[in-house]
Amino acid sequence: MNIFSILASVVSIYTILCFIRVMLSWFPGAEFSRFGQVLCQMCDPYLNIFRRFRFLRFSSFDFTPAIALCVLMALQSLFLSLATGKGFRLSTLLAALVTLVGSILTSILGFLALIILVRLIVYILIGDGQGSYSIWTAVDRAISPVIFRIAGLIFRNQTISFVKAMVVSFITLVTFSVLLSYAVRTLGMMISKIPF
Q1: Residues 92, 86 contacting (CB under 8 angstroms)
Q2: pLDDT tens for each residue of 47-62
Q3: E-strand spans in the chain?
Q4: Model's pTM, two decimal places?
Q5: Using the 8-state DSSP alphabet, how is residue 60 labeled?
Q6: Structure confidence by residue, pLDDT tens digits, 13-43
Q7: What is the C-alpha end-to-end distance of the chain, expressed in Å?
Q8: In the chain, how long is the greatest CA-to-CA distance?
Q9: CA of 108: how far to CAs of 52, 63, 70, 87, 88, in Å?
Q10: Residues 133-142: what's their mean pLDDT?
Q11: How distant is the alpha carbon of residue 156 from its chain centre?
Protein backbone atom coordinates (compact mmCIF):
# COMPACT_ATOMS: atom_id res chain seq x y z
CA MET A 1 0.00 0.00 0.00
CA ASN A 2 1.56 3.28 -1.07
CA ILE A 3 1.09 6.77 0.33
CA PHE A 4 -1.57 7.68 -2.25
CA SER A 5 -3.72 4.68 -1.26
CA ILE A 6 -3.49 5.76 2.37
CA LEU A 7 -4.39 9.35 1.46
CA ALA A 8 -7.34 8.14 -0.63
CA SER A 9 -8.59 6.09 2.34
CA VAL A 10 -8.21 9.03 4.74
CA VAL A 11 -10.10 11.35 2.37
CA SER A 12 -12.81 8.70 1.93
CA ILE A 13 -13.31 8.40 5.70
CA TYR A 14 -13.32 12.18 6.10
CA THR A 15 -15.91 12.47 3.31
CA ILE A 16 -18.19 10.06 5.17
CA LEU A 17 -17.75 12.01 8.41
CA CYS A 18 -18.56 15.30 6.64
CA PHE A 19 -21.64 13.71 5.08
CA ILE A 20 -22.85 12.53 8.50
CA ARG A 21 -22.15 16.01 9.89
CA VAL A 22 -24.28 17.58 7.16
CA MET A 23 -27.09 15.07 7.76
CA LEU A 24 -27.06 15.84 11.50
CA SER A 25 -27.87 19.47 10.72
CA TRP A 26 -31.23 18.31 9.38
CA PHE A 27 -32.31 16.97 12.76
CA PRO A 28 -32.98 19.51 15.53
CA GLY A 29 -30.62 19.09 18.48
CA ALA A 30 -28.51 16.35 16.87
CA GLU A 31 -25.58 18.73 16.42
CA PHE A 32 -25.49 19.35 20.16
CA SER A 33 -25.11 15.70 21.15
CA ARG A 34 -21.64 14.54 22.16
CA PHE A 35 -21.17 12.76 18.84
CA GLY A 36 -22.47 15.81 16.96
CA GLN A 37 -20.06 18.13 18.75
CA VAL A 38 -17.09 15.89 17.93
CA LEU A 39 -18.14 15.84 14.27
CA CYS A 40 -18.58 19.63 14.28
CA GLN A 41 -15.05 20.08 15.60
CA MET A 42 -13.65 17.76 12.94
CA CYS A 43 -15.67 18.84 9.91
CA ASP A 44 -16.75 22.46 10.38
CA PRO A 45 -13.31 24.00 9.71
CA TYR A 46 -13.35 22.39 6.27
CA LEU A 47 -17.05 23.03 5.58
CA ASN A 48 -16.72 26.68 6.66
CA ILE A 49 -14.27 27.30 3.80
CA PHE A 50 -17.14 26.78 1.36
CA ARG A 51 -19.70 28.69 3.42
CA ARG A 52 -17.82 31.89 2.54
CA PHE A 53 -19.03 31.62 -1.06
CA ARG A 54 -22.37 33.41 -0.88
CA PHE A 55 -23.24 32.71 -4.50
CA LEU A 56 -23.69 29.05 -3.53
CA ARG A 57 -26.68 30.05 -1.41
CA PHE A 58 -29.89 31.39 -2.83
CA SER A 59 -33.27 31.68 -1.24
CA SER A 60 -33.38 29.04 1.49
CA PHE A 61 -31.05 26.66 -0.35
CA ASP A 62 -27.44 26.19 0.72
CA PHE A 63 -25.37 24.15 -1.71
CA THR A 64 -22.04 24.68 0.06
CA PRO A 65 -22.04 21.24 1.74
CA ALA A 66 -22.61 19.53 -1.63
CA ILE A 67 -19.70 21.45 -3.14
CA ALA A 68 -17.46 20.58 -0.20
CA LEU A 69 -18.29 16.88 -0.51
CA CYS A 70 -17.71 16.93 -4.28
CA VAL A 71 -14.27 18.47 -3.79
CA LEU A 72 -13.39 15.70 -1.33
CA MET A 73 -14.58 13.05 -3.78
CA ALA A 74 -12.50 14.61 -6.56
CA LEU A 75 -9.45 14.62 -4.28
CA GLN A 76 -10.04 10.98 -3.41
CA SER A 77 -10.33 10.15 -7.11
CA LEU A 78 -7.03 11.93 -7.79
CA PHE A 79 -5.27 9.98 -5.02
CA LEU A 80 -6.72 6.70 -6.30
CA SER A 81 -5.49 7.52 -9.79
CA LEU A 82 -2.02 8.18 -8.46
CA ALA A 83 -2.14 5.03 -6.30
CA THR A 84 -2.90 2.79 -9.28
CA GLY A 85 0.23 4.02 -11.04
CA LYS A 86 -1.49 6.03 -13.74
CA GLY A 87 0.74 8.94 -12.77
CA PHE A 88 -0.05 12.59 -12.74
CA ARG A 89 -1.00 14.34 -15.93
CA LEU A 90 -2.29 17.86 -16.25
CA SER A 91 -4.98 16.67 -18.65
CA THR A 92 -6.26 14.18 -16.05
CA LEU A 93 -6.46 16.96 -13.47
CA LEU A 94 -8.26 19.29 -15.91
CA ALA A 95 -10.71 16.53 -16.89
CA ALA A 96 -11.42 15.85 -13.20
CA LEU A 97 -11.96 19.56 -12.59
CA VAL A 98 -14.39 19.86 -15.52
CA THR A 99 -16.22 16.75 -14.32
CA LEU A 100 -16.35 18.11 -10.76
CA VAL A 101 -17.81 21.45 -11.84
CA GLY A 102 -20.30 19.67 -14.10
CA SER A 103 -21.32 17.30 -11.30
CA ILE A 104 -21.86 20.20 -8.94
CA LEU A 105 -23.98 22.10 -11.44
CA THR A 106 -26.07 19.08 -12.45
CA SER A 107 -26.55 18.17 -8.77
CA ILE A 108 -27.84 21.67 -8.03
CA LEU A 109 -30.15 21.61 -11.06
CA GLY A 110 -31.38 18.12 -10.18
CA PHE A 111 -32.05 19.09 -6.57
CA LEU A 112 -34.04 22.15 -7.63
CA ALA A 113 -35.99 20.09 -10.16
CA LEU A 114 -36.80 17.51 -7.47
CA ILE A 115 -38.03 20.18 -5.03
CA ILE A 116 -40.20 21.72 -7.76
CA LEU A 117 -41.59 18.31 -8.75
CA VAL A 118 -42.49 17.44 -5.15
CA ARG A 119 -44.14 20.83 -4.68
CA LEU A 120 -46.05 20.44 -7.95
CA ILE A 121 -47.34 17.00 -6.90
CA VAL A 122 -48.39 18.31 -3.49
CA TYR A 123 -50.06 21.30 -5.16
CA ILE A 124 -52.06 18.99 -7.41
CA LEU A 125 -53.04 16.68 -4.52
CA ILE A 126 -53.86 19.15 -1.72
CA GLY A 127 -54.00 22.56 -3.35
CA ASP A 128 -51.88 25.57 -2.60
CA GLY A 129 -51.61 24.88 1.16
CA GLN A 130 -51.74 28.61 1.91
CA GLY A 131 -54.59 28.45 4.46
CA SER A 132 -52.12 28.62 7.31
CA TYR A 133 -48.39 28.73 7.60
CA SER A 134 -47.04 25.35 6.60
CA ILE A 135 -43.92 23.74 5.24
CA TRP A 136 -45.33 24.38 1.76
CA THR A 137 -45.52 28.10 2.41
CA ALA A 138 -41.81 28.05 3.22
CA VAL A 139 -41.07 25.96 0.12
CA ASP A 140 -43.10 28.36 -2.02
CA ARG A 141 -41.16 31.33 -0.69
CA ALA A 142 -37.89 29.57 -1.41
CA ILE A 143 -38.66 28.41 -4.94
CA SER A 144 -40.77 31.33 -6.21
CA PRO A 145 -37.83 33.57 -7.17
CA VAL A 146 -36.17 30.68 -9.00
CA ILE A 147 -39.19 29.39 -10.90
CA PHE A 148 -40.45 32.81 -11.94
CA ARG A 149 -36.99 33.81 -13.13
CA ILE A 150 -36.69 30.64 -15.23
CA ALA A 151 -40.23 30.94 -16.57
CA GLY A 152 -39.63 34.64 -17.26
CA LEU A 153 -36.85 33.72 -19.66
CA ILE A 154 -39.36 31.79 -21.75
CA PHE A 155 -42.51 33.88 -21.29
CA ARG A 156 -41.07 37.37 -21.50
CA ASN A 157 -43.37 40.16 -20.30
CA GLN A 158 -46.26 37.75 -19.70
CA THR A 159 -48.03 37.05 -16.45
CA ILE A 160 -47.98 33.34 -15.65
CA SER A 161 -49.47 31.28 -12.86
CA PHE A 162 -47.48 29.61 -10.09
CA VAL A 163 -48.32 26.14 -11.44
CA LYS A 164 -47.30 27.04 -14.99
CA ALA A 165 -44.05 28.51 -13.66
CA MET A 166 -43.36 25.27 -11.76
CA VAL A 167 -44.05 23.07 -14.80
CA VAL A 168 -41.93 25.19 -17.13
CA SER A 169 -39.11 25.42 -14.59
CA PHE A 170 -39.13 21.68 -13.96
CA ILE A 171 -38.96 20.84 -17.67
CA THR A 172 -36.26 23.47 -18.25
CA LEU A 173 -34.11 22.30 -15.34
CA VAL A 174 -34.34 18.62 -16.31
CA THR A 175 -33.56 19.36 -19.96
CA PHE A 176 -30.65 21.64 -19.13
CA SER A 177 -29.31 19.14 -16.58
CA VAL A 178 -29.33 16.31 -19.13
CA LEU A 179 -27.67 18.46 -21.80
CA LEU A 180 -25.09 19.77 -19.35
CA SER A 181 -24.28 16.27 -18.12
CA TYR A 182 -23.72 15.06 -21.69
CA ALA A 183 -21.59 18.11 -22.58
CA VAL A 184 -19.44 17.78 -19.46
CA ARG A 185 -18.91 14.05 -20.00
CA THR A 186 -17.90 14.65 -23.62
CA LEU A 187 -15.61 17.54 -22.74
CA GLY A 188 -14.03 15.57 -19.89
CA MET A 189 -13.25 12.65 -22.21
CA MET A 190 -11.78 14.99 -24.83
CA ILE A 191 -9.57 16.73 -22.27
CA SER A 192 -8.37 13.46 -20.74
CA LYS A 193 -7.07 12.35 -24.15
CA ILE A 194 -4.73 15.33 -24.42
CA PRO A 195 -1.20 13.85 -24.10
CA PHE A 196 0.26 16.10 -21.40
Answers
A1: yes
A2: 999 888 877 776 667 7
A3: 57-58, 61-62
A4: 0.66
A5: T
A6: 999 999 888 888 877 777 788 888 999 999 9
A7: 27
A8: 63
A9: 18, 7, 12, 32, 30
A10: 76
A11: 29
